[in-house]
Amino acid sequence: MEILIHKQLPNHKKLHPIDEGALGFGDIYTDHIFKMDYFEGKWQNPRIEPFAPFVLSPAAMVLHYSQTIFEGLKCYRHPDRKLALFRPQDNFKRLNSSAWRMAIPYLDEEFLLQATKELLKIDGDWVPSKPGSSLYIRPTVIATEPHLGVRPAKEYLFFIMLSPVGPYYPEGFAPIKIYVEDFYSRSAPGGLGEIKAGASYAGSLLATELASQKGYTQLLWLDSKTHKLVEEVGSMNMYFVIDDTIVTAPLTGTILPGITRSSVLTVAKDLGIKAEERSISIDEILETQKSGRLTESFGSGTAAVISPVGCLCYNDTVYEIGNGKIGKITQTIYDELVGIQYGLKEDTRGWVELV
Ligand SMILES: Cc1ncc(COP(=O)(O)O)c(C=O)c1O
Prior knowledge:
CATH architecture of the largest domain: Alpha-Beta Barrel
Number of strands: 18
CATH topology of the largest domain: D-amino Acid Aminotransferase, Chain A, domain 2
Number of domains: 2
Bound molecules: pyridoxal-5'-phosphate
Number of helices: 8
Largest sheet: 9 strands, mixed
Strand content: 25-35%
Mean pLDDT: 95
Helix content: 10-25%
Radius of gyration: 21 Å
CATH class of the largest domain: Alpha Beta
Low-confidence stretches: none
Distance between the termini: 19 Å
C-alpha cells in the first residue's frame, strides 16, 4: 500500500519544542502521526499527517468497551547519528497477538515496520542524542465504529505516534522502591495479562495509585489465585538474583512476554550468567533476602530498559535488597543492552534495525 504523506509546513511552529536536558517520559509528541483505517473488511488509507487531535463519535466502541491495544518500542540515535530501532518486528508480532485476543483484525507486520520507518524519516530530527534519551514509538489500535452494544467493532483506527523521552522513572538508573500487592490482581489465567490491552492497564491504576501514596514507584503483582507467586511489575518483567542465578517468572499466560525480557535472558546466557524461568513465591524471596542469598533484583521493559530494585515492601515490612545499591549482574546486563541499543557495542544478534 502506498503511504500518502501530508507534511507540516516547513516554517510551522512546533507544537512541543524539546529541551533534551529536561526530557521526562510521555508528555511531548512529534510533528507527525501515521494513521490507517479499517473498514469494509480491510486496512486502508495509510497516511502520514500533522499531529493533531482526532474527531471520534461519542459512540465509538473504544470509549465504551475498551477495544484497544498498543505497543511500545524505541528509536535510538547512534554515535554516527544513524537511527536504530531495537527488535521492532517482535513488537509488531506481539501487536498481532494482542489484536487476536481482542478480536481486532490482523495487521501486516512488514507494512507496520515500513510505516514506522517512513514516519521516522520525516520526524527523525526529534530523536534526542543525550545519553539515556530516545524516541518512544507508540503504535495503537482503537475501535472507532459508532455502536452501543457489546461485539467486536467493524471499524478501527491504527496510528503510530512518537514521543522523545528521557528516563521512565524520575530516579533514572537508580534503585526503585516496589510495593508488593497482595489484594488486587492485574490478570488471571485466560485473561488479558499476556497482551498489551488498554483495559489491563486501566485495571491496575487504583492499586498503583494507592502504593504511590505510600511512596512506592511501582507495584509487584502476585498471581490472582493464591497471591503468593510473583508475576511482574506495572510496566516491567521482574528478576531476582538468588545464589548468583537470575530467576524470573515463566510465561504462563498471565504476564507480558517482554521483548526486553527475552533480550535479558539471551544476554545472560551469552555472558555465562545462570538464568531460570520458574515460578517463585514471595515467601521464597523474603526467605532468601533474610538469609543473604538474594543479592539483587531488577525489572526490565522498553521504557526503563533495566531498573534496579532497592527494596520491596510486603505486609507493611520493608525488605532491603543488595544494601539498596545497584548489583553487579544488574549493571552487567544494563551495560550490554544499553550498549547495543545506543550502538556502542556490536549487535551480534541481529536485534538492531537501522532506519
Ligand atoms: C505489563 C508489562 N510487563 C512487561 C513489560 C516489558 O515489556 P517490553 O520489554 O516488551 O517492553 C511491559 C512494557 O511493555 C509491560 O507493560
